[in-house]
Structures are given as structure tokens and as C-alpha cells.
Design brief:
Strand order of the largest sheet: 5-10-9-6-8-7
Largest sheet: 6 strands, parallel
Order of helices and strands: EHEEEEHEHEEHEHHE
Oligomer: single chain
Helix content: 25-40%
Structural class: alpha/beta
Shape: globular
Number of helices: 6
Length: 227
């Protein structure tokens, strides 16, 4: 059995002893990341700061000790003053990436918080000359850039990832928070934090984060000025 408590984006946390599975003293922690670079991993781990996580043994899990097998470019942030500016910058960035013959457009992904936003980004990119596919399940995007939700991206990986519109009120999702009861709100916030962590850790190489107006409060101050 393998689990990553930091990636819990659905439902309630499960402690295996409550299911009759005894693992205390029989488990070990895996800390070496092979997918993403040390720079992207550090960025993603900082998203988790402020959250309290419990592992499958029922023990508090911290974020210390995790490391990557390789290095790469530092994540980049794009602070924008409007929706159109945000889309213009993302389109120009992707155009520059795919102009490099070593970059497969199908390995480039734009992750949004909701399906509606992911579809809107696809349409906006197409209008700006960047063909893209909007996918709703874990599948290959073919020879085009893909747009998808952060939830859909779980379990997937891409050479280059744009986290689109990581804006206050969008992430964490205001509608989801408003719908939660007071006793559920803390757990909902934890899942929103984990969702952003999952999204940030999908990038093997380049990671870019954009927002419009005020950045998400889930971004630590050091995560707002990486470029």
C-alpha cells in the first residue's frame, strides 16, 4: 500500500488502523522524487506550509526531507492586471516554448481550477493562434497543448505546466468554501491546498504560475516572486 497524504484532494482522510490494517512499525517514508525538479518540488512543498497533514499511521506528517533526483529552471510567476493580459502572456509563453523544436506541444499543459475555466482557456488560446485540446480525463492530448482541471491532472505529468489564474477567490475556490459547513471548512481548505500542491508537482521541467489581480493566499510570499 502506498499513499501520499499531501495529495488528498477527495473525501476524508483514512487511517489504516481504523480499517483493521496494522502498519505501525512496518512502514517507511519515501522522500526521493523522480518526476519533477528540485526547484519545482520546493515550490510545491511551500504550498503545503500552514496545513496539518496526518499519514496512514495517524501521525502528523511534515514536509521536511523531500528531495528530487535532478535540477532545472526556477518556477516563474506572471502577475497580471486583467484577464486579457493573463491570456496574452500565457499564449506568448506557449508560442515561445513550442517554437523550440525539442518541445512537444502535447507535453505542455495549462491547469485551471474548473472545467469551465479550462475550456475558456482553450478557446482563448485558439483565438491567439495556439491550438489546444480541452481534456476531461487522464489521456494523451495528441499533438496539441492541453487544458484541463487540476483534479484531472492528478496522476499525470507534463514537460511544461502553466498554473492558470491562481488568483484570490479562484484558488481556493470561493464557491466550494461557501458551500462547506463551519465544521468542514478546515478540511476543505486543506484539500484546496493539496490540490494546488498536486497541480504544481505535475511539471517535469518548467513551471509557470499566473494570476489576475491578487494572488491566492495559498501561495506563500516566496512563491509569489520566483521569476
Amino acid at each position: 500500500i502506498a499513499e501520499d497524504t499531501h495529495q488528498r484532494i477527495y473525501g476524508h482522510h483514512v487511517v489504516l488502523s481504523r480499517c483493521g490494517v496494522a502498519i505501525v512499525g512496518r512502514s517507511r517514508r519515501l522522500t526521493l522524487n523522480y518526476r519533477t525538479t528540485a526547484e519545482n518540488l520546493a515550490y510545491a512543498m511551500r504550498v503545503l506550509d500552514g496545513g496539518t497533514y496526518v499519514d496512514a499511521e495517524g501521525v502528523d506528517e511534515d514536509v521536511a526531507g523531500y528531495h528530487s533526483s535532478r535540477r532545472g529552471p526556477a518556477p516563474t510567476t506572471l502577475a497580471c492586471a486583467s484577464e486579457s493580459e493573463q491570456l496574452d502572456k500565457v499564449a506568448a509563453l506557449i508560442e515561445a516554448w513550442v517554437a523550440d523544436e525539442s518541445v512537444d506541444p502535447g507535453s505542455v499543459a495549462v491547469l485551471a481550477r474548473t472545467n469551465d475555466r479550462a475550456a475558456a482557456v482553450r478557446d482563448a488560446l485558439a483565438k491567439r493562434g495556439v491550438p489546444a485540446n480541452h481534456i476531461k480525463s487522464a489521456q494523451a492530448g495528441g499533438d496539441r497543448v492541453v487544458t484541463l482541471t487540476m483534479h484531472t491532472a492528478k496522476g499525470m505529468e507534463f514537460s511544461r505546466v502553466v498554473l492558470f489564474d491562481i488568483t484570490d477567490g479562484v484558488v481556493p475556490n470561493a464557491w466550494v468554501l461557501d458551500k462547506a459547513s463551519p465544521e468542514e471548512r478546515e478540511d476543505v481548505m486543506l484539500r484546496e491546498r493539496s490540490l494546488l500542491y498536486v497541480a504544481a508537482s505535475r511539471a517535469r521541467d518548467a513551471l509557470v504560475i499566473t494570476w489576475n489581480g491578487n494572488p491566492s493566499p495559498l501561495l506563500a510570499p516566496t512563491n509569489r516572486d520566483e521569476n
